[in-house]
Amino acid sequence: MSPLQHLQEASQWMEDLSRVFSQVDLIERPMKYLQCLQHIEELSAAVQQRLMVNSVCEAIKVVDQLAALDSGLNHSSCSHLQKFLRETLCFWHNIIKERLSSEFGKVLTQLHWPIISPNQPLSPVANCPDSSSQLEALVAQLLALQASYPSTEKHRTSHQPVQVSSPPPPLAVSVCLPVQIMLLPICKRFRYHFYGNRQTNSLNKPEWYLTQALIWMGSSAAFMEEKIQPVFDRAGAAISARVELCRGLVSLVQEKVAADAPRILYDDALFCHLVEEVLQFEKELRGSHSYPPALPGLLHILLEDAILQKWLAVEKKMAVEKMDAMLSTDGAWSSQYKDISDMDELKAPDCAETFMTLLQVITERYRALPSPSAQLKFLELQKELVDDFRIRLTQVMKEESRCPLGVRYCAILNAVNYISTILRDWADDVFFLQLQQAAVSLGEDEVPGGRSMMEVGRLASLEGSLFDGLLALLDRLKGDMLGRLLDFLMREISEKAKPYCQERWLSLPCQQDQSIMSLSGSACPMMLCVRDRLLNLHQVLSLPLFQLVWQGLAERLDHFLYQDVVLSNHFSEGGAAQLHFDMNRNLFPLFGHYCKRPENFFKHMKEAVIVLCLNVGSAALLRAVLKESQQETRDNERDRAADPPPESVLNEMGVYCLAPSDVLILLNLRASWPGQ
Fold it and tell me: Name one GO cellular component term (predicted).
């Protein structure tokens, strides 16, 4: 027989044997089904026998066997058998639980449980050996019974919030069984006072039941730590008795808040009050009672879509109303710290400070939310409010722009700068940096408002912040307002400076001919105007803004004097000396109150005065050098290695800003030259 024929015959035998085994298995199934059913009946009878002789521990061991069998049948297709086993297991669970609950309740009564009042002392009976041993035995039995719960309940995670129905179960299964029983009298009190037609069940007083739950947590903490926790530890249960009690009470409060919240969605006042009380409850729960962050509290109820949208709408409505009110008050544009110099560096008007406080309060309300996407929705609301406030400031600014030196205009400028400063501080805050990372991780589609891929990448690299768009708009407004202010100042100063620009510099006497130098009479109006405006702005503008203003004014004034005084006139030796005195002894010192070297902000005028005041010999030599350099540069014949460049010559004289061609122009403005 060839190997191929042998394989064909063996294959035929295998098919025949497979059919036979399938038939045998089909015949054996009913037998196994009946055997399993008989085993369930035997275990059930064993539980009954042990309970009849009060051997609860042995009964629980048999129940454990039933639970193991139930777990083994999880993937079976015998649905009726599974149902029968589950019903049997639940039946004996309820019987044993009822018996143990009754005995455990009696022991707790002896220990004067529940602890209702914070001042209620622990019972001296608690020190009785019989009560202690009874307590320990019953807790151990209840924990063992809970371990054999049907798999669909036993495998529920302890971090899942309980989905309650009407009427709700007394407590979540995730709370350990001994604590569930301990909480039964507390649940009864809670439902008596805060459900039905009781006066204490009031929609406008959620603080009553929230505070009561916190009181029970605090008053029961010592009992749980001193009496129950040692029993748990000796039983080998990795359970915190105090936390379990808090979980049960939180479950009660969750159920109540979830029932009340939909009923007040259309009443803004009641809804706001509930949110405030829930946030306060959560704060005390996590702080005073050390409730673990991994366990859910009440905040997840506020994240339900209808409640969250209502919360956002109410926040916006109330914020807009407060903005209207704060901008219409009499003291909106004055600083409440104006009389305290060391506290008023930013000189923020009351409306701006109140507005940023409003935003900070909103931040504190949503900071604890467990959902980054919900937090980002509140952040978008805050940014929308900031932009709305910016638009309002812009509208008031345009009304006041006819007088940029007025108190209100400067207060608006201080407000814009104050808001920008606070937002930049927030951009570096850990909380907002975490939100920035959350915005990146959520991606472009899920981030409120949508972001471009470039913006998402910039946020991910921390090159930008969540407030960059707002800061750009605020900086633009600040720049526009500073420009208007400086333009107004220069118009006023240039008007005062007209006589000074028309001074007869060519005919002024030499310094030697005067007994003492004094300020030019034509310069007095200009100098007084500069001095008064600087003093006034120093008082009404914040320090950072005033720095920008006086430096901007110095730059513009430098350019104005250089163009309209220096380049528009010719100077005798006396005229140059008078200009030097006016600048160095009068104008520059006006700015010396705000910096150490004010002349550095008048580079054109400082260097022009240096050139105009050169003695005749130095001036003639310098002019010859510059002309020669200019000619050689034009002819490309200058030997760079032989002669120093004209810039180095000017630098030795203290001239760094003016170009050689500008210096040559200034030298030609001098009236006194040898031979003339």
Answer: Dsl1/NZR complex
Q: List, in sequence order, every residue forming a beta bridge with 571; answer none if it has no partner.
A: 670
CA dihedral 260, 261, 263, 266 (to 10 degrees): 150
Query: Which of 475, 469, 379 is closest to 420 using CA atoms?
Result: 475
Dihedral of CA 382/385/387/390: which sign? negative
Closest to 162 (Cα-Cα) out of 302, 258, 305, 90 = 258
At residue 1, the pLDDT reads 60
C-alpha 260/C-alpha 203 separation (Å) is: 7
CA distance 552 to 546: 10
Phi-psi region of 54 (alpha: psi -120 to 50; beta: other; left: phi over 0): left
- CA pair distance 562, 605, nearest whole angstrom: 6
Please give the structure tokens belonging to residue 388. 């709305």
Q: Are 216 and 186 in contact (CB under 8 A)?
A: yes
In 62-95, which positions are buried (b, 16+ CB within 10 angstroms) versus exposed (e)? Answer: bbebbbebbeebeeeeeeeeeeebbebbeebbee
Tell how far CA 356 is from the center of its chain. 13
Q: Are 612 and 505 spatial neighbours (Cβ–Cβ below 8 Å)? A: no
Residue 641 phi/psi, 5-degree rounding, is -75, -25
Contact 537, 550 (CB under 8 A): yes
Could you give the maximum distance between any two Cα atoms of the chain, in Å? 144
In angstroms, the first-to-last Cα distance of the chain is 140
Whether a cis peptide bond, with omega within 30° of 0, leads into 114 is yes
pLDDT band at 5 (very low <50, low <70, confident <90, very high): confident
Rounded to an integer, what distance in angstroms lies between the CA atom of residue 272 and that of residue 314?
8
Dihedral Cα 369, 372, 374, 375, nearest 10 deg: 70
176, 146 Cβ separation under 8 angstroms: yes
328: Cβ contacts below 8 Å, ≥ 6 apart: none
Half-sphere exposure of 31 (CA within 13 A, CB side): 5
Amino acid at 638: R
* pLDDT at residue number 125: 46
Which residue has 């009499």 as its token pair?
A: 330
Q: Is 408:333 a contact under the CB 8 Å cutoff?
A: yes
Whether residue 435 contacts residue 375, with contact meaning beta carbons closer than 8 Å, is answered with: yes
Report helix, strand and coil shares of the chain as percent, to nearest 5. 75, 0, 25
| The length of the chain, given as a count of residues | 676
How is residue 61 written in tokens? Answer: 């061991």
Q: Give the model confidence (pLDDT) of 596-645 as tens digits.
A: 999 999 999 999 999 999 988 888 888 888 888 877 766 665 454 456 78
Quick check: bond before 167 cis, omega within 30?
yes
Q: What CA–CA distance (Å, rounded) separates 332 from 412?
A: 10
Rounded-to-integer distance, Cα 86 and Cα 98, Å = 18
- Contacts for 92 with CB less than 8 Å, ≥ 6 apart: 44, 47, 59, 63, 66
- Provide the residue type at 206 as one letter: P
Strand partners, 670: 571
Could you tell me which of 300, 269, 267 has the C-alpha nearest to residue 282?
Answer: 300
Q: How far is CA 60 from CA 84, 427, 516, in A?
A: 19, 60, 115
Residue type, 239: I
Q: Look at residues 234, 392, 248, 255 and name the one whose alpha carbon lies nearest to residue 320.
A: 392
Report the C-alpha gap between 304 and 300 in whole angstroms: 7
Question: Which amino acid makes up residue 451?
Answer: R
126, 132 contact by CB (below 8 A) = yes
> Phi, psi (5° rounding) for residue 613?
-95, 5
